[in-house]
Amino acid sequence: MAKLALLFLFALPLLLSLTSLLPLHCNAFSVDRPTDRRLLVLVDDLAIRSSHSRFFSSLQARGYDLDLRHADDPGLALRRYGQYLYDGLILFSPSVQRFGGSLDLAAVLDFVDAGHDLILAADSSTSDLIREIATECGVDFDEDPAAMVIDHTSYAVSETEGDHTLIASDDFIKSDVILGDKKIEAPVLFRGIGHSLNTANSLVLKVLPASPAAYSANPLMKLSSPPSLTGSAISLVSIVQARNNARILITGSLDMFSNRFLKSGVQKAGRSIKHEKSGNEQFVTEISKWVFHERGHLKAVNVHHHKVGETNEPSMYRINDDLEYSVEIYEWSGSSWEPYVADDVQVQFYMMSPYVLKTLATDHKGLYSTSFKVPDVYGVFQFKVEHQKLGYTSLSLSKQIPVRPFRHNEYERFITTAFPYYGASFSTMVAFFIFSIVYLYNK
């Protein structure tokens, strides 16, 4: 009995730790419900819990479980026992020099490489660690640590005269899947640092660019040399959708998410219209829906192909067979899967290169289908669907199938196109017979 009691005492901490992980794993991201998620929020100051409470409340109202921690908390970890504890990461800690616990630059990048999502907000106090994370994601913040985005044409007129660091921008990306189908009427308030996109990274997109008159410089000093970032090359808010469908949002303004900016009225310079409320709340809500896969997340099911007139999927096709191909594609709406409707989904019948390229017809209920004839080439082919569209997760489907030639007993007995050859053969035999008779009996 003493040994059993001792064993129980040693096993109890392990059982408690495993039990504490069960809720995390149950709420983790799943293919069937992409928004069942637990988010880790890292902050420099726990006062952000109240100063940015409206943004956090909007996430919780949509069903997210937030774990708000100090960025240098010694107990921080993204994974334990080989399993990720969170499905999304929000970095509202621009000045952190070093994360606590086992969290570091490599851990954050591995987190994204594993298909998880990231929101990164910076400001004028941004540390080298946050800059490195942004650089690895294809975004370069201004190298001058004191630089801010200044605009003498697109600023909020309510600010103190001469202070043009509070940008009022409404040049949004034209994409309903990223920002929703309801137009953002009021400008978005932005105060912070600008960034440029790495031209070698084709996955980064500007969601909110600066105006052509904007530039990045220290607002407390006179310009002694041309700014390093100017005009529309400056991005205020950018997004990345990685090839593994992980999504990233990067902005140089932590204030953009604050209660003050979400509730503030705004009037853009040069315009007479004054909006009672800025577009920040609608903007950050809609963009966070996209980042956390509440919109634009696709899945494909029931990939099927068969010969015309049949229903069973064959193990191989014969050249010149007529076949039908179908697939069902759905989009996650935030609460359920809805039919995805598009007119540019294509299938390739592929061997080294596409032999057949067909656009799939849709019944507007999620089913995409087409029919075509197998090419007169035998070998190992693939049905391939590669669908990539702005704002949507990419679909990459492939199914291998061999194609064989006709067997010797499957050809027609007499081929119509071979009649001239048949005639030539018989005429040769007749001519030889006549020649033999003439040669043998002619004196």
From TrEMBL:
<comment type="subunit">
    <text>Component of the oligosaccharyltransferase (OST) complex.</text>
</comment>
<feature type="signal peptide">
    <location>
        <begin position="1"/>
        <end position="21"/>
    </location>
</feature>
<comment type="pathway">
    <text>Protein modification; protein glycosylation.</text>
</comment>
<keyword id="KW-0732">Signal</keyword>
<keyword id="KW-0472">Membrane</keyword>
<dbReference type="GO" id="GO:0008250">
    <property type="term" value="C:oligosaccharyltransferase complex"/>
</dbReference>
<dbReference type="InterPro" id="IPR055459">
    <property type="entry name" value="OST48_MD"/>
</dbReference>
<keyword id="KW-0256">Endoplasmic reticulum</keyword>
<keyword id="KW-0812">Transmembrane</keyword>
<feature type="domain" description="OST48 middle">
    <location>
        <begin position="305"/>
        <end position="443"/>
    </location>
</feature>
<comment type="similarity">
    <text>Belongs to the DDOST 48 kDa subunit family.</text>
</comment>
<dbReference type="Pfam" id="PF03345">
    <property type="entry name" value="OST48_N"/>
</dbReference>
<dbReference type="Pfam" id="PF23358">
    <property type="entry name" value="OST48_MD"/>
</dbReference>
<feature type="transmembrane region" description="Helical">
    <location>
        <begin position="419"/>
        <end position="441"/>
    </location>
</feature>
<protein>
    <recommendedName>
        <fullName>Dolichyl-diphosphooligosaccharide--protein glycosyltransferase 48 kDa subunit</fullName>
    </recommendedName>
</protein>
<comment type="function">
    <text>Subunit of the oligosaccharyl transferase (OST) complex that catalyzes the initial transfer of a defined glycan (Glc(3)Man(9)GlcNAc(2) in eukaryotes) from the lipid carrier dolichol-pyrophosphate to an asparagine residue within an Asn-X-Ser/Thr consensus motif in nascent polypeptide chains, the first step in protein N-glycosylation. N-glycosylation occurs cotranslationally and the complex associates with the Sec61 complex at the channel-forming translocon complex that mediates protein translocation across the endoplasmic reticulum (ER).</text>
</comment>
<keyword id="KW-1133">Transmembrane helix</keyword>
<feature type="domain" description="OST48 N-terminal">
    <location>
        <begin position="38"/>
        <end position="291"/>
    </location>
</feature>
<dbReference type="InterPro" id="IPR055457">
    <property type="entry name" value="OST48_N"/>
</dbReference>
<dbReference type="GO" id="GO:0018279">
    <property type="term" value="P:protein N-linked glycosylation via asparagine"/>
</dbReference>
<dbReference type="InterPro" id="IPR005013">
    <property type="entry name" value="DDOST_48_kDa_subunit"/>
</dbReference>
